[in-house]
C-alpha cells in the first residue's frame, strides 16, 4: 500500500521559512517523479514544484521560483520543499504527490498517489 505523509507545515510570519517533508512508502521511490501542489480555500489545486526520479531536474511554478526549492533523498524515500521568503499568498494546504515513470508534471491528473496534506499559514 502506497503512503505519502507530509509534515513540517505550520504558522510563520511573512518573510520567514518552512521546510516541508514527505515520506513515501510502499513504492519503488526512484521510479517516481514527485510533485508538490497546494490548495487555498475556495481555489483549485495548483502546481508548486516537481522533481524527476533521479533528482537531477526540477520544475517550479513562476510564483515560487527563486523562493522555493524541491529536493529528494532516494535512499530515505523522502522529498522536501524548502520555502523561503514566504508571503501571505503562499497560505494553503500543501500536498505531495507521486507520478510513476514521469519526467515531472505540473498537471495534478497525471499523479498516481497523493498525501493527506499539511497546512501552511503565512501571517502578514
Describe this structure in words.
The protein is an all-beta fold and 124 residues long. The chain is built from no helices and 11 strands. The strands form 2 sheets. Strands 2, 4, 5, 6, 9, 10 and 11 form a 7-stranded mixed β-sheet that branches. The protein has a 4-stranded antiparallel β-sheet with strand order 1-3-8-7, with no helix packed on it. A hairpin with a 6-residue loop joins strand 4 (32-39) and strand 5. The radius of gyration is 13 Å and the shape is globular. The mean pLDDT is 96.
| Major sheet size, sense and barrel closure | 7 strands, mixed
Number of helices: 0
> How are helices and strands ordered from N to C?
EEEEEEEEEEE
Q: Give the mean pLDDT.
A: 96
The share of residues in helices is under 10%
Structural class determined from secondary elements: mainly beta
CA distance, first residue to last residue: 40 Å
- Percent strand equals over 45%
Q: What are the key terms here?
A:
124 residues; 7-stranded mixed sheet; 4-stranded antiparallel sheet
Write a brief structural summary:
This protein has strands at residues 3-7, 10-13, 18-25, 32-39, 46-51, 58-60, 68-73, 78-83, 92-100, 113-114, 118-123. With 124 residues, the chain is mainly beta.
Topology summary:
Elements (H helix, E strand, L loop, with lengths): L2 E5 L2 E4 L4 E8 L6 E8 L6 E6 L6 E3 L7 E6 L4 E6 L8 E9 L12 E2 L3 E6 L1
Parallel strand pairs: 2-11
Antiparallel strand pairs: 1-3, 3-8, 4-5, 4-9, 5-6, 7-8, 9-10, 9-11
Amino acid at each position: 500500500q502506497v503512503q505519502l505523509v507530509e509534515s513540517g507545515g505550520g504558522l510563520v510570519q511573512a518573510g520567514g521559512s518552512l521546510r516541508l517533508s514527505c515520506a513515501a512508502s510502499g513504492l519503488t521511490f526512484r521510479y517516481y517523479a514527485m510533485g508538490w501542489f497546494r490548495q487555498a480555500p475556495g481555489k483549485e489545486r495548483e502546481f508548486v514544484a516537481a522533481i524527476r526520479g533521479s533528482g537531477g531536474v526540477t520544475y517550479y511554478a513562476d510564483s515560487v521560483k527563486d523562493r522555493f526549492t524541491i529536493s529528494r533523498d532516494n535512499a530515505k524515500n523522502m522529498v522536501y520543499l524548502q520555502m523561503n521568503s514566504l508571503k501571505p499568498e503562499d497560505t494553503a494546504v500543501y500536498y505531495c504527490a507521486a507520478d510513476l515513470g514521469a519526467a515531472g508534471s505540473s498537471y495534478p491528473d497525471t499523479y498516481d498517489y497523493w498525501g493527506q496534506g499539511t497546512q501552511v499559514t503565512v501571517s502578514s
